[in-house]
Design a protein that fits this description.
about 350 residues, alpha+beta, 12 helices, 6 strands, rod-shaped
């Protein structure tokens, strides 16, 4: 999965927080330290009785947290005081041995405190990294993380769907593998420029951008760029949105707008021609008014039946392959409508 490293860190942290595990680990570490100290007694001598117990406290605190470190400190003091410190009597330690034991407890407490703080910092960083990766993985758009060298270091599931690649196929590849071949050289220069002066911004503002799928096909996209830190290194996060449906909708709207403009222009031309042919010399105002009203009414009646051009266009499939015949049917319908209006405007006086 995308967040395996951070997830492993958090799982390990959860395991460390279990008191039974921490207690067992602390006891095992202290027993191991005592065994090593006993075996190396002749070589170490009696002057440094706590040497092997410091690593036991350190490991117990790092793995088991405050609870594990505290248990290891107490057990180490008891074992070392009983086995390796010389008492002045049957049950009392000498002043020197007591001072050494107190010093060990103080130093061990400091070690536990520092290790606990360090462990909390590591867990916080791991949690933040996990949250970042989870947000990227669950994003509805394609997300691609590109390192400073131009290599892809992270992608989410949506990116796999958009580009047709498996995740393992993209990691470690240059991001230009997703760029159309005719602009790859220019993209390298733009990428280097962004990484030199990173800032949150859209990519290619004011231009139509395309991306390249694994099968070589291209599709229109919008891309947002954000500078981030990825695993402690400078990187760029690219958000990729497929805008194919939006482009198709805009093209349909443009065709409708052109059709409407053509129809309105034709209608005004027909009305103007009708008025000119009606208002000729030799007719009274009443005759001209009556004749013009009749012709305008005929034009209005001609507009009432279903519009072949509009219905033909609206029944077109929105896929790119069907747009060409759709335009042809709309143009044919417009031509037929224009001829009809001209015929109505030009009937005999």
């Amino acid at each position: 999965m995308f967040a395996e490293a951070a997830t492993s860190a958090l799982v390990a942290s959860t395991e460390r927080q279990r008191p039974i595990v921490s207690l067992a680990l602390a006891i095992g570490a202290v027993l191991l330290a005592a065994s090593v100290r006993w075996l190396a007694g002749d070589w170490l001598g009696a002057s440094i009785p706590f040497l092997t117990f410091f690593p036991a406290v350190l490991v117990s605190a790092f793995v088991g947290g405050l609870w594990g470190g505290a248990v290891a400190t107490v057990l180490s003091a008891i074992v070392a005081g009983y086995l390796f410190l010389e008492p002045t009597s049957q049950s009392m330690l000498s002043v020197r041995s007591g001072a050494a034991l107190l010093g060990f407890v103080i130093v061990a407490a400091i070690i536990v405190f520092v290790i606990v703080l360090l462990r909390q910092a590591i867990e916080t960083i791991a949690a933040q990294e996990q949250n970042q990766r989870m947000l990227i993985e669950s994003a509805p758009n394609g997300v691609i993380v590109v390192g400073a060298d131009g290599l892809i270091v992270g992608v989410n599931a949506r990116s796999e769907t958009l580009f047709g690649y498996e995740r393992a196929e993209l990691i470690g590849k240059y991001v230009e593998v997703l760029v159309p071949g005719n602009i790859r050289a220019a993209h390298v220069a733009c990428r280097d420029q962004f990484l030199r002066a990173p800032q949150t911004r859209p990519m290619g503002a004011g231009r139509d951008l395309c991306a390249r799928r694994r099968d070589g096909s291209e599709f229109p996209v919008e891309i947002g760029l954000n500078p981030i830190r990825w695993e402690g290194r400078r990187a760029a996060l690219a958000t990729v949105t497929d805008i194919t449906e939006r482009k198709q909708h805009e093209e349909r709207q443009a065709i409708l707008a052109r059709e409407l403009e053509h129809r309105v222009g034709n209608m005004f031309a027909v009305i103007l021609a009708t008025i000119r042919r009606t208002l000729t010399r030799g007719r009274s105002i009443a005759e001209a008014e009556q004749l013009l009203t009749q012709r305008i009414q005929l034009l209005a009646d001609a507009r009432r039946p279903p519009r072949p051009s509009h219905s033909s266009f609206m029944n077109c499939s929105p896929t790119p392959s069907s747009m060409a015949p759709c335009r042809a049917r709309a143009a044919s319908s417009l031509s037929a409508g224009t001829s009809k209006h001209k015929a109505l405007a030009g009937f005999s006086d």
